[in-house]
Amino acid sequence: MQALLPTRSTLPLFDVAASRRIEARALAHSPDLMERAGLAVAKLALALRRGEGPIWIACGPGNNGGDGRVAARRLSEIGLPVHVGHTAPPQPSLVIDALLGLGLNRPPDAALQTTIAAMQTCGATILAVDLPSGLLADTGQAAGGAAVRADHTLALLTLKPGLFTGEGRGYGGQLWFDDLGITPDEVASADLLGPSPLPQRNPTSHKGSHGQVLIVGGAPGMQGAARLAARAALACGAGRVYVDLLGLPATEPADPGQPELMRGRLADLPQAVGVVGCGAGPTIADALPALLREAPKLVIDADALNAIAADDELQTLVRARTAGSTLLTPHPLEAARLLGCDTSAVQADRLAAASELARRLACTVVLKGSGSIIASPGERPAICASGGPALATAGSGDVLAGWLGGLWAQQPGASGHAIACAGVDAHGRAGEAGGVLRAGDLIERLAARR
Length: 450
Ligand SMILES: NC(=O)C1=CN([C@@H]2O[C@H](COP(=O)(O)OP(=O)(O)OC[C@H]3O[C@@H](n4cnc5c(N)ncnc54)[C@H](O)[C@@H]3O)[C@@H](O)[C@H]2O)[C@@H](O)CC1
Ligand SMILES: Nc1ncnc2c1ncn2[C@@H]1O[C@H](COP(=O)(O)OP(=O)(O)O)[C@@H](O)[C@H]1O
Description:
Its EC number is 4.2.1.136, 5.1.99.6. Its cofactor is Mg(2+); K(+). It holds the Pfam family Carb_kinase. There is one protein chain. The chain has 450 residues and is α/β, with parallel strands linked by helices. It has helices at 16-29, 33-48, 63-77, 110-121, 168-172, 223-236, 284-294, 302-309, 312-320, 332-339, 343-348, 350-361, 396-410, 416-430, 439-448, and strands spanning 2-3, 11-13, 55-59, 82-84, 94-98, 126-129, 152-156, 174-178, 190-192, 212-217, 240-245, 262-263, 273-276, 297-300, 326-328, 364-367, 372-375, 382-384. The strands form 2 sheets. Strands 2-9-18-17-16-15-14-13-10-11-12 form an 11-stranded mixed β-sheet, with helices on both faces. The protein has a 7-stranded mixed β-sheet with strand order 1-8-7-6-5-3-4, sandwiched between helices. 54% of the residues are buried. Ligand NAX binds next to α1, α2 and α3.
């Protein structure tokens, strides 16, 4: 058993169907899986229990409840007071939620909702078995809007995607994992991202060795967004960073507070990685055809995404680009515009939405938000579980776009998918902080990890 986040390496995630196949094959040679699961729950319960009161174990009708009953037996065998039932005992020392796991197939009914509410209000720490009851394992959504908000969740046998994206991080609490001694004999449904190595710098390298980035955006009144992206690309290690500030005379400095940055234009920088759209406003639509035809690598964000969503010809140009050379970074609303649906449809199944967008536009998609998804045609999707609400502030997405551009400039042979996985994970880890991180501070934290 191990505490999971932050992850030290990339881990496989298995959806419900794949978890069931793994379980079925494992049961053929290890029929004691539920004993192992219940023992793991009991061990963690021992560590989490606070006070002398009974451990309340709420068991459901299926195997999730079975795990709970095994845990109850194990705990009472060592003399601990245990209460199995759907109503709270007085002053429980811990609640074990074993109502529903992988088998959730409809919203919890009124009786279950009453039990969930009692768990939530009894004042004890809640340990969920496998999944918080009511949370859909594949999507990280609460079925019918009702699920247990656990303090801890012990995932069993497999890690399920829904613990890491959508609302999953909000319901799961601290995550633990026990593989029950089974090595999955199944292709993963998705990857949970671990850290990627940063680009190395050769002792004899010079600025020309580390590539160029061209930021296109920053319409009047929104230059800060482009400048944040440019500063992030520079902090990442790009050899030269240029800014094309839309509507601002070329004689104006790129960024008076960051003299390393230069003004530049696509026509003069044919090799530069383009980072397009940060604070760009609607006029970015005029610049996009040339960028989409000529820039060898593009990170497309913000207003550029909105312009593409509104224009079929721009979408055709996106699809026509070389495979692996285009990376879109929509937040859920931008993704919804690109897909022609609403935000709730995107959030209802973030993995599916990101994969569909990647398929339609033949490029890499980073669907931002809690549990960012990285999806590309022909690649297994990845989920980034690092980062948190400290990133929920203006400018953190601009920093991500710039950082991705900076990484790509230094690794021109890498695919958009590889750059997205590395950059999104680094951005998330730098964004693990209490309170709120100002975007400028986020750049410093990213730079400190270089
Ligand atoms: N597949 C695995 O990874 C393993 C499974 N184990 C445990 O088994 C669980 C899966 O067991 P099951 O497949 O029996 O599924 P569950 O125990 O999650 O639930 C299935 C039962 O709940 C009912 N149900 C579903 N939604 C409901 C709702 N909203 N309200 C009321 N009843 C509802 C179903 O009709 C069915 O009777 C896992 O979550 C885990 O706890 C472990 O014992 C071993 C490994
Ligand atoms: N609660 C959260 N958990 C994890 N990451 C978050 C959270 N809120 C925001 N982020 C991250 O912060 C960034 C915000 O990007 P975006 O919405 O484009 O902001 P902006 O346009 O203001 O720069 C994204 O990378 C997103 O994934």
